[in-house]
Amino acid sequence: MKKFKFKFKFNSLTMRIWTTFTVIILIIISSISFFYLVAFRSINEKGKVQDLKVSHDILLKTNNFTQPNRSDEYRNLKGSDYYIYTIDKNNTATIVNINKGHQMPPDSQNDLNSPFKTNDANLKIWMSSYITSGTLYEKQFKGTYNNMKYIFIISSIKYGDFGKSYLITYIPDIVDNSLLYMVLWVGLIFIAIGFLTSKLVANYISKPLKELENCTVRISHKDWEKPINVKNEDEIGRLANSMNLMQKELKRTDEEEKMFLQSISHDLKTPIMVIMSHAEAIIDGVYVESVEKNAEIIRDESLSLEKKVKQMLYLNTLDYVLENNFENIEINLHRLLLRITNRFKVINNNNIEWDLDIKDATINGNVDKVQVSIENILDNGLRYAKSKICVSLKKEGAFAVIGIYNDGPHIREEHLSHIFDNFYKDKTGKFGLGLAICMKIINYYNGEIEVTNKDVGVNFLIKYPL
């Protein structure tokens, strides 16, 4: 349970914003700290060396080594000092502490301790050990003594009657981490402020998102009545507009589906009732005409019922079949149209005049699917044709254009844009899926289909890319 709560909190918008905010602050702090450790310390050290060199140079030029040190009053030279290291004719070394006003041999243990908890005499002996033979002039050295880093400069000088004398100016390289600590404290403060800020920002952002969530739940339960109230024109506002459009489309689809179910229940129930009534009449021996006539009626109704069921199954699986169909061969539309029209002439021997104007054209695709798309349009035309069917094929630009005309009644204008919908009903109130199947197949092959009312009759145009 605790694990679930932790995961929930981490996945919350507040925690995500705060985490992002914290990571950005940590990156900034890390960058500043790195800059401080690498660049700032290097610059600070160079500044100390330069100032110590200036102080050392002033002592050399004034040749006055008896005055107390005043350089440590400056920020960069805080803790600096200087002394004189002498070697007499007997090769005896002596340290002259200018600021302490006394001389002492290097091995004396009665000296005072420095402010850095380091034995003053031992420290100066250590620095004096860097003296080399010959004349030195502002020779710079860096070293660590008792875990403290020192910068010191050594120059040969003339001091009293001593054989050799050296001026040694030094400063402890104390690292001032106050800036680093300040950056860390400011970062922690900003992280704390960031948590509160992220909470406010998350609440501001999540409020419309929660409204969208509630609306999504309503839509999932088919509650179409209340649209989403769009208050902003930002990304969330555009999302709300898109959801409103989705809601309208789902509402329309739901209404069409209900109408389709009503139509299909009636259209399927009617032939079933006819089949049952005539079958019972045969069983009971009560029928108006012969047994053969009742059997013919049962057969015709069964065929009609079978056709509608096949169309429903075909439409339901058409998307999958098209997406998983890898057949893409050359199709000679001239031969295909002749074969289709000849078969329809034989089946529909009802004194319909056929006017054929079929040129040569070749397309790529699945023969069975293309044939279905043409047959459904032709079957629809024959259903309403009074006396004439015209079939044409020609090339227009990059398309092969198939025209199928029938001289039947016009399609009402309000139905022209909907006859290819899945749940469209014709004038008789019966549902038909043939035109919807045509639309799916033609769209899959990047073709076009359109229907127009002529002065007399209706004309369908099917366009397939050559």
Notes on the structure:
- The protein is an alpha+beta fold and 466 residues long.
- It is built from ten helices and 13 strands.
- Helix 7 packs across helix 8 and helix 8 (367-384) runs antiparallel to helix 10 (434-444).
SSE map:
Elements lengths: L1 H9 L2 H50 L18 E7 L5 E5 L4 E3 L15 H9 L10 E7 L2 E10 L6 E9 L5 H43 L14 H50 L6 H33 L5 E4 H15 L5 E6 L3 E4 L1 H18 L3 E9 L2 E8 L6 H4 L17 H11 L3 E6 L4 E8 L1
Parallel strand pairs: 8-10
Antiparallel strand pairs: 1-2, 1-6, 2-3, 4-5, 5-6, 7-9, 10-11, 11-13, 12-13
Main sheet, how many strands, which sense, barrel?
Answer: 6 strands, antiparallel
Could you tell me the mean pLDDT? 77
Query: Level of helix content?
Result: 40-55%
Low-pLDDT stretches are 1-9, 101-105, 107-118
Q: How large a portion of the residues is in β-strands, by DSSP E?
A: 15-25%
Protein structure class: alpha+beta
Q: What's the order of the H and E elements?
A: HHEEEHEEEHHHEHEEHEEHHEE
Total helical segments: 10
Strand element count: 13
Gyration radius from CA atoms, angstroms: 50 Å
The first-to-last residue Cα distance is 64 Å
Strand order of the largest sheet: 3-2-1-6-5-4
Tell the overall outline: rod-shaped
